[in-house]
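Pipeline run #58 for the internal structure catalog. This entry was flagged by the ingest filter as a single-chain record with no existing model, so it goes straight to prediction. Upstream metadata was stripped on purpose; only the residue string is passed forward. Reviewer on rotation: M.T. Logging verbosity set to normal.
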Amino acid sequence: MFRRGEPVPFAFIAEADRFRSNVTPPPRPRRSFGEVAGNALVGLTIVAGLVGSVLVGLPALQEDHSGPAKEHPAAAEHR
């Protein structure tokens, strides 16, 4: 983009991307022990739920080789 020779109204808006503030945000307040413990319990509950669902669903994903053999109809035996 080219720059004009004459002053432009509201030229400071075009220069705003280069502006850096020296004002720092206020520091965050420290979290209490209860908040930290609550967040840890929520995380543990989520992880335990995922692990439990995998453990409960795992038998359904395995092939069952101990089931009854394929039954053949009696009519197919004596042709």
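catalog note: The chain has a mean pLDDT of 78.
catalog note: Residues 33 and 69 are 60 Å apart (CA to CA).
status: ready for reviewer M.T.
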